[in-house]
Design a protein that fits this description.
The structure is a single chain. The chain is mainly alpha-helical and 87 residues long. The protein has one domain (7-77). It contains 4 helices and no strands. It has helices at residues 6-32, 34-40, 45-76, 83-86. α1 runs antiparallel to α3 and α2 crosses α3 (45-76). The longest helix is centred in the last third of the chain and has 32 residues, at 45-76.
Amino acid sequence: MGAQQYELCGVIRWRARYVVIASFIVLSPIFLKAGVFFIAMGLDESTSRQAELYLQSQMPAVFILGLLDVDRNFLACFNRTDIAMYC
């Protein structure tokens, strides 16, 4: 079924992983200093600090979900979308 280009699917998967990693590296300083940006926009200081702590605590989850999304799309190439239900 399909074009049977499994090697190309793997290449695209690794390229997508590199894009996720590179974009996370670029966005990490923004997440780490989000409180400063919020204060500069005129938000309350305590609220800005709490938002910064929340963003910092969610950074690993955002990274892992980005990689998981890449793997989910990779498995969709093989019509194996049910694997996430078993995990």
